[in-house]
Amino acid sequence: MKALILHSDDLGFSLEGNSRIFQAMEEGLLSSASIMVNMPGSRQALEKAAGVKGRFGLHLNLTEGFPLAEKSEVPDLIKSSSQFRGPLQLALLVSRSGRNLSLRRQWRREMELQFQKALDHGVLLSHVNGHHYIETFPFLREDVLDICSRYAIRNIRVACDPTPINVFLRHASRLKTVWALWIRHNAVNLKNEAITRGFRFPEISLGVGLAGRINAELLDFWLRRYVATGQGRVEIIFHIAAPEASVLMKRLPFKFSDPESESAALRYLLLRKNELR
């Protein structure tokens, strides 16, 4: 089991999502989870995670919900509703204006507040990663590494998912394909910077761009290709706290995201426990 990390993002997204994650951890299905500190379920997640060593990280979030910073402190990161603009808008903003010092001060301020909130609640942060993989975004990744260093966090995620493209395309949501490939490309640069600066991370991260899409077929492929061959520490990224699909999404001719399917996939892994040792 030491070579395989079963991780769920989005702890704190909602109370319902918290229940799924904490139950999976109690059943021994999950190794770790990362906490969002600005969402409806954040308070409960922070209280339950307080004082627990080695299992909970910070899930930096600049794309969803309301910022912890005052509106006047992060004007370029939010829309008229005072919520974050979303991952695509942030990616465009970073790509066009990432060198802008005013913009960088804004996301640095928000990340600082998110770190402080987790630590003020007594969470013993074991690692850091980003919602929608923001830690891979150009320019942003440098500031993520800087703030991790300042808080003495040396474990991060490097989302260089080696899953072959043909396998990925067979399982990924069509709406997320280009996005996921962009993240995987950016993750290579993050990996190089992280190595140079002495950060630690699993040698292989699986599930990038596959939120809510992981199933038994994928798990079998990953176990044979990466776990059984002893290629180092392998992290499988689950999103079992994801919200249920909207009415519109349910009308699509394919499934966009299915957290219940991922929960079932975790239980399938439990049945394969002998292969994970």
Q: What's the total number of strands? A: 6
Instruction: Indicate the proportion of strand residues.
Output: 5-15%
- Note poorly predicted spans: 245-257
> Class by helix and strand content?
alpha/beta
CATH architecture annotation name: Alpha-Beta Barrel
Could you estimate the helical fraction of the residues in percent?
A: 40-55%
Alpha-carbon distance between the termini?
5 Å
CATH homology superfamily name: Glycoside hydrolase/deacetylase
How many individual domains? 1
Q: Enter the CATH topology name.
A: TIM Barrel
Shape: globular
SSE order in H/E notation?
A: EHEHEHHEHHHEHEHHH
**Sheet with most strands: strand arrangement:** 4-3-2-1-6-5
Give the C-alpha Rg: 18 Å
Q: Total helix count?
A: 11
What is the mean predicted local confidence, pLDDT?
90
Can I get a quick summary?
With 277 residues, this protein is of the alpha/beta class. It has a single domain (4-276), classed as Glycoside hydrolase/deacetylase (TIM Barrel, Alpha-Beta Barrel), CATH 3.20.20.370.
